[in-house]
Specification:
It is built from ten helices and five strands; from the N terminus they run H-H-H-H-H-E-H-H-E-H-H-E-H-E-E. With 312 residues, the protein is of the alpha+beta class. It has three domains: 211 residues, no CATH class; 48 residues, no CATH class; 38 residues. The strands form two sheets. Strands 3-4-5 form a three-stranded antiparallel sheet. 18% of the residues are buried.
């Protein structure tokens, strides 16, 4: 909805590009691949790429938040201002708590992604392993509520064997039939190409995987607020020069940061978006005396939305 999108953009404003390029867009790309029934190898490669980027992000957050915590602690040793507003020290306390929480959460999630990486390497090509990784970000369902999966083939048979009881396995080995039951775990079912599926993004998990960056961004914001309140206190007294220089520096730094953050991702394709160029020769003999015209059609497929343009 419009309200939800606006609220999401507002909450992620301090780290807007980081959130979209490292969390939101990769998950939407994977979801679109599942909807388009891409091969397991393609989906697994995209998940692996996203996992590596998240690991790098968590490592960066751990280091940056640790340095930020040290900077905040160092600010507490500064001499207090006589007319300092309570917002200054309050922002520093909030920044310290947020940065420390960011370190803990980033370390915890980095461990999870590292463990999953090791498991995926050992079971490469395993559909069950791929399904479990998809469960971290997506909810894949069949249209009907009855039995949704069809077990066949060697891969599916192996998945079934892992979920069978001892009696059912003996009965199956003796030539008996396996009762078709609705699986209790959706990850153990295989959907045929003829089945209709729905793919839903787990927004709770989106929030979970981006939370360390959110905490660090808010911690930096709180630190800057506290620093601004501390330094600009002389604006109400006689010594204004240092405060004015600080405000000018903050304005320039903020402008450069916003400008570079926008253009850094402008022409970089981090998601591997498909770009197909089709050259079509259109005959216009009826209109232009048999003269032909080459038309270049650029189609960019981006998360299921097509954008087309024509150049004569």
């Amino acid at each position: 909805s419009f309200i939800g999108l606006s609220l999401s953009n507002l909450i992620t404003l301090p780290y807007y590009r980081f959130y979209r390029e490292n969390t939101l867009f990769p998950v939407l790309t994977i979801a679109q691949c599942v909807r388009d029934r891409q091969s397991p190898e393609i989906i697994s490669a995209k998940i692996s790429n996203w996992r590596e980027r998240k690991l790098s992000e968590y490592q960066f957050i751990t280091v940056a938040s640790t340095l930020l915590s040290a900077a905040v602690i160092g600010c507490f040793s500064w001499a207090p201002r006589d007319t300092e507003h309570w917002l200054g020290p309050g922002s520093w306390y909030a920044s310290l708590v947020l940065s420390m929480t960011s370190v803990l959460l980033a370390s915890s999630q980095a461990f999870i992604f590292s463990a999953i990486k090791g498991t995926s390497s050992e079971s490469r090509g395993d559909r069950l392993s791929l399904s479990r990784e998809l469960e971290m970000i997506l909810r894949v369902r069949g249209v009907h509520d009855d039995y949704e999966g069809i077990w066949n083939g060697s891969d599916e048979r192996r998945v079934v064997d892992e979920s069978l009881s001892l009696g059912d396995r003996d009965n199956l080995n003796k030539g008996g039939k396996l009762r078709m039951m609705k699986p209790t775990d959706r990850r153990t079912a295989t959907i045929e190409e003829s089945d209709e599926i729905t793919v839903e993004v787990r927004w709770n998990m989106i929030f979970t995987w981006q939370a360390p960056m959110m905490l660090m961004a808010y911690s930096i914001t709180a630190f800057i607020i506290g620093l601004t309140v501390y330094i600009t206190t002389p604006l109400y007294d006689g010594g204004r020069q240092a405060a004015i220089v600080y405000l000018v520096a903050c304005g320039l730094a903020g402008l450069v940061f916003v400008w570079c953050s926008f253009w850094a991702y402008k022409f970089v394709d981090l998601q591997g978006r498909d770009e197909v160029e089709i050259t079509a020769k259109i005959s216009k003999s009826e209109k232009k005396r048999g003269q032909g015209q080459d038309v270049m059609i650029h189609r960019r497929v981006w998360f299921g939305r097509d954008r087309e343009g024509e150049e004569a």
